[in-house]
Amino acid sequence: MRTLYFNEKDLDLRLGEMRRQFWREVEEEELKMAKKRLEEALQIEFNEAIGAGDYERSAGRKMYRGGYRYRDLQTWGGRLWRVKVPKGEKGYKFKLLKPWARHVEKFGEAVYRAFVYGMSDRKVAKFFEGLYGKKILSPGGVSVIYQNLSREVASWHERALDDGYKFIYLDGMWQSIRGGARNQRVILAAMGIKQDGTVEVIDFRVETGESASAWGRFIQSLYDRGLIGKSLELIIHDGCEGLIDALRWVWPMTKTQLCAVHHLRNVGHNIRARHVRAKVLRQAKTVYTAKNRQQAIDRAKALAKRWEHCEPMAIRRFMRRLDDTLNFMDFPQELWFMLKSTNHLERYFREWRRRLKSMGALPNPASCDRILFALVQQYNTQKKLRTLTSIQKSELYLT
Predict the structure, then answer these.
(1) Where in the chain are the domains?
(2) C-alpha of 32 from chain center
(3) Which of 78, 79, 85, 115 is closest to 100 using CA atoms?
(4) Which of 266, 269, 273, 312 has the most CB atoms around it within 10 Å of its CB?
(5) Distance from the Cα of residue 222 to its chain's centroid
(6) Where are the beta strands (DSSP E) in the chain?
(7) What torsion do the CA atoms of 236, 241, 246, 249 make, to the nearest 10 degrees?
(8) Looking at residue 340, what is its pLDDT?
(9) What own/partner pairs with CB < 8 Å and gap ≥ 24 does 268-275 have?
(10) Which of the 8 DSSP states describes residue 196?
């Protein structure tokens, strides 16, 4: 007689295999039950649509049965094989199933979310193959899922807007996109802060440039959808001439703030002598740390008096648009850090660039639109209840 001895490692391996087999059988039973319930629900819906049961003669009959077809359906818990779907003589569109769909909506959202988090089409397909132990999606199938979300993206771009924004940031970001004469496209974006301090991306649009007509189309669409600007107190922008012209046309009475960071950057580009650039910019920055507008103007005059002889072009540029960069000082001091520049929107642009950098040049504007839509939805969902600390301190002002 032969005796088998099992050590602790062998016992753990066999117990692990037993557990996996047990849960595999549980999952299979759950999928069988889900398939049965789905077929029953489809049959009930189809009978109601026909107006008569099997072999029933009824004056209220609307159509006749045309047999069955079988469809494989991928769910988050696994694949339902050969689901029995009733078929009408002249066709019928089910409410429980989308036409030609091979996956449920939650599964499609999971695939799309994996792509948004940085996975390519092939990586997404391999991820779900590893998850379910078999190939359930091809890279082409992943692309089809993304394209089906274009209708949701278009609906979001056309939604009605709330007119409760007090501050709006407007800026553009350039991105490489194939499929046109020009390889570079600009993404125009608007971010708003509401009465209660909620921060969210209002909308964005892929355009060929930052001309007055491009910005005008974007801003006019915001206005037509409900953002009239009754509560709007300040618009922060980067100084683009096309944007300024568009703002004069759509919101001519709203106060604007030229981004101080962009203004200093442009001044730095006009400083010819490299050995004085750091000194000039260091003194120019003190203008925006003043306690009030008058002190800021006095510091700007001192700057001009010291450097206008050696750097006349840079000083002229700085003084010409100085007033446009000081409008943030008309608001409570607790809000200055967020109103004097477009940095709040620029920080969010860095998230876009980080996600898009790994993809290189995007195939077309529609693809760019879908990816950015998912990122915006993620941001707005996470930041929906976010209130800036400075706004909490000035609660009396906002309310």
Answers:
(1) 1-98, 103-148, 163-393
(2) 38
(3) 85
(4) 266
(5) 17
(6) 65-75, 78-88, 165-176, 184-194, 199-207, 234-237, 256-258
(7) 100
(8) 92
(9) 268/314, 270/311, 270/313, 270/314, 270/317, 271/311, 271/314, 272/311, 272/313, 272/314, 273/310, 273/311
(10) T
Token pair 């967020």 in the structure block, residue: 338
Per-block mean pLDDT, blocks of 10 residues, the chain (399 long): 62 71 62 67 71 69 73 64 74 64 54 54 58 54 61 86 92 81 83 88 92 93 92 92 92 93 90 89 93 93 91 90 92 91 90 78 78 83 53 40
Strands of 177-320 (E only): list them: 184-194, 199-207, 234-237, 256-258
Helix axis angle, 105-116 to 121-132, nearest 10°: 130
- Structure token digits, residue 88: 């009408």
Closest CA to 343 of 255, 243, 237: 237
161 vs 156, 227, 233, 369, CA distance in Å?
10, 6, 17, 19
Going across the sheet that includes 234-237, the strands are: 199-207, 184-194, 165-176, 234-237, 256-258
Report pLDDT for 168. 95
Angstrom distance (rounded) from CA 125 to CA 140: 9
Which residues, at least 6 apart from 82, have a Cβ–Cβ distance to it below 8 Å? 70, 71, 72
Q: Do the Cβ atoms of 139 and 122 come closer than 8 Å? A: yes
Per-residue buried b or exposed e for 136-159, using 16+ beta carbons within 10 Å of the residue's own CB = bbeeebbeebbebeeeebeeeeee
Q: Which two tokens stand for residue 142?
A: 């992943």
Name the DSSP class of 94.
-
Cα separations in angstroms, 106 against 29, 44, 74, 109, 137: 21, 23, 10, 5, 15
Single pTM value for the model? 0.67
Which H or E run includes 250?
helix 241-250
